[in-house]
């Protein structure tokens, strides 16, 4: 009897959640949502499977999801085994010719295929790509000091639109192609921002390993203005890997993306909570 009561309570809660989700489901019907999955947010196989189900659910309710991933920790692991140490400047890896080979191998290889496989196991049709496929992400060199680090200049929108029409889910490794045949390493956040901006996406979600952008007291700032981001960066409160994230968020909303959220990807169903409930967490930067 007691068990039945608990079960009934569960059903009531589920029904309430579905009811709460309705306006969000309507708002996001046929929307484009770009999700950046950071290397630190790609933990356990269960976490990956849960992320894949969330992406699949988005597709099922009519959203066009695009996944762009990182994999910094996985690159570090292989470089360490090869005895190579990288320097980072403002959250970006200084990338020489030998390093870019390792970066491409790790990102376009194991990391990309792990995500593709997880989404397909959840019933989706994910297609793994790097920026080299059909010239998806063409880059210039970002800064000579960073070596083979790319700044995206052109995105092949036609390819992405064809995949949306076929209800396929693009999973993109942040590797760019140069005009002279170079291979470029692109920071995952910057690649996701460039794709979101080109698509004028409804939402850009940056999934990471912290609960949002924190202020000097260590509290998450739920809504951030451009001026606050600039000030917190100048003061060194936004540092390291959070610099490309917040700059990407600003660039994306300036380029026509409706909103960008920085959320904790380790939280179960982080993507669904952010898109389809009143309980979105993390930090949001709006246009
Ligand atoms: N103000 C800040 N608020 C939150 N995190 C910050 C802040 N400044 C720097 N960080 C750091 O940024 C990291 C996220 O960037 P990064 O390690 O590149 O993540 P990912 O691999 O998910 O892209 C956090 O783990 C944190 O250490
Ligand atoms: C230029 C640059 O820094 N590229 C990144 C690409 C991977 C990435 O962005 O990974 P996360 O999202 O897990 O940090 C790198 O080499 O680490």
From TrEMBL:
<keyword id="KW-0808">Transferase</keyword>
<keyword id="KW-0028">Amino-acid biosynthesis</keyword>
<comment type="function">
    <text>Catalyzes the ATP-dependent phosphorylation of N-acetyl-L-glutamate.</text>
</comment>
<keyword id="KW-0547">Nucleotide-binding</keyword>
<dbReference type="Pfam" id="PF00696">
    <property type="entry name" value="AA_kinase"/>
</dbReference>
<dbReference type="InterPro" id="IPR004662">
    <property type="entry name" value="AcgluKinase_fam"/>
</dbReference>
<feature type="binding site">
    <location>
        <position position="185"/>
    </location>
    <ligand>
        <name>substrate</name>
    </ligand>
</feature>
<comment type="pathway">
    <text>Amino-acid biosynthesis; L-arginine biosynthesis; N(2)-acetyl-L-ornithine from L-glutamate: step 2/4.</text>
</comment>
<feature type="site" description="Transition state stabilizer">
    <location>
        <position position="245"/>
    </location>
</feature>
<dbReference type="GO" id="GO:0005737">
    <property type="term" value="C:cytoplasm"/>
</dbReference>
<dbReference type="InterPro" id="IPR001057">
    <property type="entry name" value="Glu/AcGlu_kinase"/>
</dbReference>
<dbReference type="GO" id="GO:0042450">
    <property type="term" value="P:L-arginine biosynthetic process via ornithine"/>
</dbReference>
<feature type="site" description="Transition state stabilizer">
    <location>
        <position position="36"/>
    </location>
</feature>
<dbReference type="InterPro" id="IPR001048">
    <property type="entry name" value="Asp/Glu/Uridylate_kinase"/>
</dbReference>
<dbReference type="InterPro" id="IPR041727">
    <property type="entry name" value="NAGK-C"/>
</dbReference>
<protein>
    <recommendedName>
        <fullName>Acetylglutamate kinase</fullName>
        <ecNumber>2.7.2.8</ecNumber>
    </recommendedName>
</protein>
<dbReference type="InterPro" id="IPR037528">
    <property type="entry name" value="ArgB"/>
</dbReference>
<keyword id="KW-0055">Arginine biosynthesis</keyword>
<keyword id="KW-0418">Kinase</keyword>
<keyword id="KW-0067">ATP-binding</keyword>
<dbReference type="InterPro" id="IPR036393">
    <property type="entry name" value="AceGlu_kinase-like_sf"/>
</dbReference>
<dbReference type="GO" id="GO:0003991">
    <property type="term" value="F:acetylglutamate kinase activity"/>
</dbReference>
<feature type="binding site">
    <location>
        <position position="93"/>
    </location>
    <ligand>
        <name>substrate</name>
    </ligand>
</feature>
<dbReference type="GO" id="GO:0005524">
    <property type="term" value="F:ATP binding"/>
</dbReference>
<feature type="binding site">
    <location>
        <begin position="71"/>
        <end position="72"/>
    </location>
    <ligand>
        <name>substrate</name>
    </ligand>
</feature>
<comment type="similarity">
    <text>Belongs to the acetylglutamate kinase family. ArgB subfamily.</text>
</comment>
<feature type="domain" description="Aspartate/glutamate/uridylate kinase">
    <location>
        <begin position="32"/>
        <end position="264"/>
    </location>
</feature>
<keyword id="KW-0963">Cytoplasm</keyword>
